[in-house]
Design brief:
- This protein has helices spanning about 5-25, 30-50, 55-75, 90, 95-120, 125-150.
- The protein is mainly alpha-helical.
- It has one domain (about 5-150).
- It is elongated and about 75 Å long.
Length: about 150
């Protein structure tokens, strides 16, 4: 076996690291997850607008429980497709924290939009706020998560 030059070894290691980062960048949540989350957001907006506060609270807790059950398998980011499973180290251990932080920010956005619409006198402010945030989630969820992952180095 011939000795490898220092620069060739460095290039090989850089290629390996770039390939690993490429695989990690592909890890994420499936598109259906985002549309399911968006649909739940719309339902919660409608429920919040037309039902008593106690029922909206129960519906929100139930949605949170269902979301937790579904997302618990997905938040590791390792099961985007059935064909590829990567190690948690490659997927990034911060991914669940990034997703939860994103969801908290979306809740705050929903509340803020609803308060602005309500102050403006809009009827069914929570419904329209839910629809607005659902559109953000459904159409932009994966892209938003990709940017947040890059910022958090996750």
């Amino acid at each position: 076996m011939e000795p490898i030059a220092h620069n060739e070894a460095r290039e090989a290691l850089e290629a390996i690291d770039q390939a690993r980062r490429g695989v990690a960048a592909e890890v994420g949540l499936p598109r259906w997850y985002w549309w399911l989350l968006a649909a739940g957001w719309v339902v919660l907006g409608v429920v919040g607008g037309v039902s008593p506060a106690w029922f909206a609270t129960v519906a929100t807790v139930a949605f949170g429980a269902v979301h937790t059950a579904v997302a618990s398998r997905l938040l590791s980011g390792r099961r985007r497709t059935g064909g590829v499973q990567v190690s948690a180290e490659t997927a990034g251990r911060r991914l669940p924290l990034v997703v939860v932080g994103m969801l908290v920010a979306l809740v705050a956005l929903t509340i803020g939009v609803a308060l602005v619409l309500d102050a403006d006198g809009a009827e069914h402010a929570s419904t329209f706020a839910g629809i607005f945030v659902a559109a953000v989630v459904g159409f932009g969820g994966p892209e938003i998560l990709r940017v947040l992952r890059r910022w958090a180095h996750a």
